[in-house]
Amino acid sequence: MEISGPRDRSARRNMTYDFQIFGQRFKKTTVIGDSAFGDSAISFSWAPGERRVRRLVSGCLIDGSSCLFGLKLSFVHEMDFVDCCILGGSKGCVDMIRGGDVSFSRCKFVSRNSDCHASIRGGAKNVSFKNCVFVNNYRSRLSGSCIDLGRWTHYDVVPRPPVRNVSIENCKMKDINYPALTRRFFSMDPDVKNSTGKNLKVPVLFVRLFWLLKRKGFFGGGSVTPPEELKVYQFES
Questions:
Q1: CA distances from 1 to 52, 54, 57, 202 (A)
Q2: Starting at the edge strand that comes first in sequence, how are the strands of the sheet with 85-87 ordered?
Q3: What are the residue ranges in the chain where pLDDT is below 70?
Q4: Among the residues of 172-218, which ranges form H helices?
Q5: pLDDT value of position 39
Q6: % helix, strand, coil for the chain, step of 5
Q7: Angstrom distance (rounded) from CA 222 to CA 69
Q8: Which residues pair with 69 in a beta bridge?
Q9: Taking the model in full, what pTM does it have?
Q10: Residue 233: closest CA among 77, 58, 72
Q11: How many Å apart are CA 147 and CA 109, to the nearest integer?
Q12: What is the pLDDT at residue 10?
């Protein structure tokens, strides 16, 4: 499947992808997958049992200014974002839960005083940021970063793997007064090369205690997610 904007009608289809979007603007709300995934300008989702498709989103403007997020990814695999500008909502530019093999190349993430520019959580793996720019401050020097790794999700009421195999290469922070490029919760260390900003880690004891209390229902941690959706599949390990 291919969706092309007016400036991209001559774009040649890349036969390595099953699904491609070129030069589109998304504001609110486009859903590609089996269900909506929160309040975002565009969301992609996948469910176990469905055929996996390789997706490309290129040269798109994803405007989450009237949403919580610009882009939401739920259990998505094998997806590449190239030359996209993602304008954040009140919570952030990107929220990815579970899934893996997702890349962002030459993308711009523009914060609107949100918690972070991108949040990768729920045991997601194999996520890369290359030649990207993170623009504008996140909300707080003490409680934010450009990329948050391994924050709590409602899927964490059951044990699951940490976020891992995240790589950040040749990325820059622009118009940001705060120092944190990444902040790690339940996550392995990211592989950071030639990128500005500090890589912070929340103490392990704090994360373990917070997870324990959330699983016991404190801080609104009780999950209404059906048990079948909490299953940790072998390919997630």
A1: 14, 11, 12, 42
A2: 25-26, 61-63, 85-87, 108-110, 133-135, 172-174
A3: 1-15, 29-38, 221-223
A4: 204-215
A5: 84
A6: 10, 40, 45
A7: 23
A8: 40, 92
A9: 0.90
A10: 77
A11: 10
A12: 39
Q: How far apart are CA 25 and CA 29, in angstroms?
A: 11
CA 19-107-154 angle, 5° bins: 75
DSSP 72: E
CA gap 205, 211 in Å, rounded: 10
pLDDT tens-place string over residues 32-87: 655 445 589 999 999 988 999 999 999 999 999 988 999 999 999 999 999 999 99
* Whole-angstrom distance, CA of residue 106 vs CA of residue 178: 22
Q: Which residues on neighbouring strands pair with residue 176, listed in sequence order?
A: none
Token readout for 226 is: 């059906």
The two tokens of residue 95 are: 């929220």
pLDDT at position 28 is 72
Assign domain 2-236 to a CATH class: mainly beta
How far separated are the first and last CA of the chain, in Å rounded? 30
Q: Which amino acid is at 45?
A: S
CA 49 to chain centre: 22
**What pLDDT, on the 0 to 100 scale, is given for residue 229?**
87
> What is the predicted pLDDT for the residue at 32?
65
